[in-house]
Specification:
Elements lengths: L7 H22 L1 H9 L21 H6 L14 E4 L9 E4 L1 H17 L7 E4 L8 H13 L2 E4 L5 H11 L3 E4 L1 H13 L11 E4 L13 H9 L4 E8 L4 E4 L7 E2 L5 E6 L12 E7 L10 E7 L1 E2 L11 E2 L4 E2 L4 E3 L2 E3 L1 H9 L4 E10 L5 E9 L6 H16 L4 E4 L2 H8 L10 E3 L2
Parallel strand pairs: 3-4, 3-5, 5-6, 6-7, 18-21, 19-20
Antiparallel strand pairs: 1-2, 7-8, 9-14, 10-11, 11-12, 12-15, 13-14, 16-17, 18-19
Helix pairs in contact: 1-2, 4-5, 6-7, 7-8, 9-10
């Protein structure tokens, strides 16, 4: 029986058994955590429950960057695949995966795809890179292989190639950054492709949210649904550091945790756990990782935990859609904003072709937000576009950032720098 369908009590006991094994592993294999335990006089064998974890200091992104090699728990010759993070908050961090870690990745994505309703016979068109030291693309490929379904590795961008592949091979699902779906739809409309009668029945989104904290479609999700109501939308949340994925099921009420792979804490500003349903920072402890396991790693992501059982029958807890990243919080004219809220307005504005959000410190010490936008041809002029956008921002956020109109090729060069594996739509210069 899948542990996610067991009772909450059984799931908790199972996680704590795996936690004890992981603590024992770290106390023997990890140079970094052996030093941490000694420096803080922690007996690893005394950490027996999830509540006990609160006695262990957090692992920060800066720790991974500064002591990267000390997190490795196996000899180099046991590393099968080398991966780096995307470097969102600084220098990329190296991760090494053993053969068992790759099996774990395959299992993780197999469970996530199953949660989203994929099965043998489905064909997934993968619109994200599988190279450039990127964990996600490899994980998706491994998961689909384990599921027994088929995968088409097209890579990101190039709407013409994506539609050519859809029309040739008839995939049943696509996986990509949700905002790219709007580009696919726009291309189809311009080239008289009847996308609503295509083979696509599911869209699995990565890297961007599709729902709000009440699990209703956000502006981006609603815009996709209005244009393409025939497809089912699924959102996922994952990161290289946690080597696990939270995927929505058909009831779309949060991303399901796989209890055998990860423990999640949600902590408040006082670094203490917050009540169920209250937003806080996502802190993770990986389970079953050989190469570079992490203990109480602060992701910087803000979300809430939902512990009520889901209608799908799974009793494992879920995470709400991300509110934003803790370090990316913006204080604009006295209002707290996270970048996804700004993106949501821009993604739902018809005349916006592309955009990037830049945050700087002002001379007065407050945040200055500049939204750089390119416009679709034959729409509004620059002056009218700026006025309309500012009105949209005030309507949704109560405040408006600065708006600059730039040529499409300039915006595209900013968003897709040569060495980046992901679109860069938020630049923090504070």
């Amino acid at each position: 029986m899948d542990i996610e369908f067991e009772s909450i009590k059984t799931i908790s006991a199972y996680q704590e058994e795996l936690l004890r094994k992981q603590m024992s592993y770290l106390s023997v294999k990890s140079p970094y955590y052996k030093r941490l335990f000694a420096d803080h006089a922690i007996d690893p064998s005394s950490i027996r429950t999830i509540a006990d974890l609160q006695r262990v200091p957090f692992t920060e992104k800066a720790d991974l960057q500064r002591y990267n090699n000390d997190f490795l728990c196996v000899p180099r010759e046991e590393i099968i695949d080398y991966i780096t993070t995307s470097g969102t908050l600084g220098d990329p961090v190296l991760f090494g995966c053993t053969d068992a870690d790759l099996d774990r990745l395959a299992y993780n994505e197999y469970k996530s795809f199953s949660c989203a309703g994929l099965q043998k016979g489905d064909i997934l068109q993968l619109m994200t890179t599988i190279d450039k030291r990127f964990m996600a693309g490899l994980a998706y490929w491994l998961g689909i292989r384990r599921l027994g379904a088929s995968i088409i590795r097209v890579g990101n961008g190039i709407p013409e190639l994506q539609w050519d592949t859809i029309q040739r091979l008839h995939p049943t699902a696509i996986m990509c950054v949700p905002s790219f779906i709007l580009r696919l739809i726009e291309y189809a409309e311009q080239h008289h492709i009847d996308y609503r009668r295509s083979s696509i029945r599911k869209i699995i989104g990565i890297g961007e949210g599709l729902r709000d904290q009440q699990f209703e479609l956000n502006l981006l999700g609603q815009r996709i649904h209005d244009k393409w109501p025939e497809v089912e939308l699924y959102a996922t949340y994952s990161s290289t550091e946690m080597s696990a994925t939270f995927s929505e099921c058909e009831h779309a009420c949060g991303g399901h945790v796989h209890p055998e792979l990860i423990i999640v804490e949600i902590i408040g500003e006082d670094d203490k756990p917050v009540p169920d349903g209250q937003a806080g920072e996502v802190v993770i402890t990986t389970l079953g990782v050989e190469g570079m396991p992490l203990l109480r790693f602060r992701t910087g992501d803000i979300a809430a935990k939902v512990e009520t059982p889901c209608a799908c029958g799974r009793n494992s807890y879920r995470l709400t859609p991300l509110i934003g990243r803790k370090h990316n919080m913006i204080k604009l004219k006295g209002t707290t904003i996270y970048p996804p809220a700004i993106n949501d307005v821009l993604d739902n504005t018809d005349f916006v072709d592309n955009y990037v959000v830049v945050v700087r410190s002002s001379e007065t010490g407050t945040d200055r937000v500049i939204v750089r936008v390119s416009l679709k041809p034959n729409t509004l002029n620059s002056e009218d576009a700026i006025k309309t956008l500012k009105d949209h921002f005030r309507s949704r956020l109560r405040v408006s950032p600065e708006v600059e109109i730039l040529p499409s090729d300039v915006i595209r060069q900013i968003i897709f720098p040569a060495k980046s594996r992901k679109p860069v739509k938020f630049i923090d210069e504070r």
